[in-house]
Amino acid sequence: MVCQHVAQGLFDRKRVGFFWSTEDPENPRPDAWCYGCNERVKTTGGDWVGIALEHLEPKYLCGVCYDLAKSFHSGGNPFV
User: Fold this and answer.
1) Sign of the C-alpha dihedral, residues 43, 48, 49, 51?
2) Are the C-beta atoms of residues 2 and 62 closer than 8 Å to each other?
3) Given phi > 0 = left and psi -120 to 50 = alpha, else beta, which region is 52?
4) What is the mean pLDDT of the chain?
5) Which residues, listed in sequence order, are joined to residue 32 by a DSSP beta bridge?
6) Which of 27, 24, 34 has its CA nearest to residue 63?
7) pLDDT of residue 76
8) Stated pTM of the model
9) Where residue 62 falls among pLDDT bands split at 50, 70, 90?
10) Contact 30, 6 (CB under 8 A)
11) Is the dihedral of CA 43, 45, 47, 50 positive or negative?
12) Which candidate, 15, 59, 57, places its Cα nearest to that of 40?
């Protein structure tokens, strides 16, 4: 799962940053979120509650799209 902003950024071709959970180091595609969501979750002490949860609106991506999102939002150019 990724936040709505990471998913929408693929369509808009707008980089929003890419942060991910380190809770399960064996997971090759952990839950991920954008810079804005990262800033909001800092205000809640790292918990996805309140304003952080309201703006998250998680979306499911397949593995290929997740890898594309991670590359793109991390500064790569996977669209060429």
Assistant:
1) positive
2) no
3) alpha
4) 94
5) 2, 20
6) 27
7) 94
8) 0.91
9) very high
10) no
11) negative
12) 57
